[in-house]
Amino acid sequence: MTTTTTKKRKATSASAGTASKKSKLGEEGADQVKQILADTSNVNSELLKLAQYARWLEEEITALKPKPKSADDIENEAEKLRASVRSGIVKQMGWKPSCKTSSSKWAYDGVCNDPVVFGHMLGLDGAPTFKMKKMKKDEFQDAMGDVSASIRYGRLYQHGDITVRWPGDGTFKLSGTYGLPRSDL
Description:
With 185 residues, the chain is of the alpha+beta class. The protein has five helices and five strands, in the order αααβαβαβββ. The chain has helices at residues 11-38, 45-64, 71-92, 115-121, 137-144; strands at residues 104-111, 132-135, 148-151, 154-165, 171-179. Strands 1, 2, 3, 4 and 5 form a five-stranded antiparallel sheet that branches. A hairpin with a 2-residue loop joins strand 3 (148-151) and strand 4 (154-165). Helix 1 crosses helix 2 (45-64) and helix 3 crosses helix 4 (115-121). The radius of gyration is 28 Å and the shape is elongated. The N and C termini lie far apart (71 Å).
């Protein structure tokens, strides 16, 4: 029985080569469009129309790029998201026998396509750089505000650390525990 060993190609060098080919092709095309539009006297009319159409497409693409958000826009979106998250958590906080030991669980799944807004909602300086993080109860309450629910003869409060999951695809999950206020706190 014989074995043969073969060397595998590295994926990084192949992808880098195709990327540079694509950018070179794009630069050449852009240069040709500039030349055609600069000197229209001795150019075929169909070629001129095609160059004008290419220029129009370039302008459309630049117009479709999202504009950077101002600090007020980020704050407003973060406040809307914060209110939605707080409301979703409070709706889950209902009475259960495990509330006596403050071990009732809640979990909130949400969507936020802008990482900067999500980071601002949690009181971070920018977009989150983590996939999963444990936040202290006080830190979470400073960022989100008071998270408590009214029950028949009292209130239920957030207890323990909060797990924040941010996979980076625009979705997030928050989970934690709640219950009656503990007398040993």
